[in-house]
Amino acid sequence: MGRAFEYRKATKLKRWGNMARTFTRIGKQIAIAVKSGGPEPENNPALRAVIANAKRENMPKDNVERAIKNAMGKDQSEYKEMNYEGYGPHGVAIFVETATDNTTRTVANVRSVFNKFGGNLGTSGSLDFIFTWKSMFTFTKKDGLEMDDLILELIDYGVEDEYDEDENEITIYGDPKSFAQIQKYLEDNGFDVTGSEFTRIPNDLKDVTDEQRATLEKMIDKLEDDEDVQNVYSNMRPAEDTEE
After folding, report:
1. Surface-to-core class of residue 173, CB atoms within 10 Å of its CB (0-12 exposed, 13-18 middle, 19+ buried)
2. Is residue 158 classed exposed, middle or buried when 0-12, 13-18 and 19+ CB atoms within 10 A define those classes?
3. Whole-prediction pTM
């Protein structure tokens, strides 16, 4: 899981680097969560998770409350989550998650970027063998916490038996279908959950040259610039991993 952590860390900083873009994306996530589960965080696990992530990204409380209120309005756009899968240049797999109120616009924009860089979009599910979809929770370490005991107990909740440690935090991974019950366990047992989300971890990383990496990073940047795009994943080996 160490490799998964390094991949996640390298891509996470880049993906959420722009504050305005981050707040826009979180706002869409709040809207989707409210529409599906209601505006009360205590009764809506998905909304609680988004609010925790908003706090982690320093999104002002007023912004969060306004996004919740706006999501309840009748005139608000209905966002639909759509995924697009394909290959960029040099055979690197690229998975694009979007939240959009206009799928025609979004797919046209995503396809345009793939075409511009010599890639091609595939069919839904075509990259299932490359990426594994996981739920992920990060929480503050507790004094005297025995991780082996915690993991042993959480295995019954769909958590994997490997985890990552980063300074004062621990990150665990689990079955996406078990997201709500893992979240409830951590909350009920007094863990300070600082982040929770779904993520896609590549099963195999593809080596690229510095020149190829530069081209692929330009393509990913272009995709991330689209306001409908939530996350972009690839199986390109992180530069930090290469240097080691």
Report:
1. buried
2. middle
3. 0.85
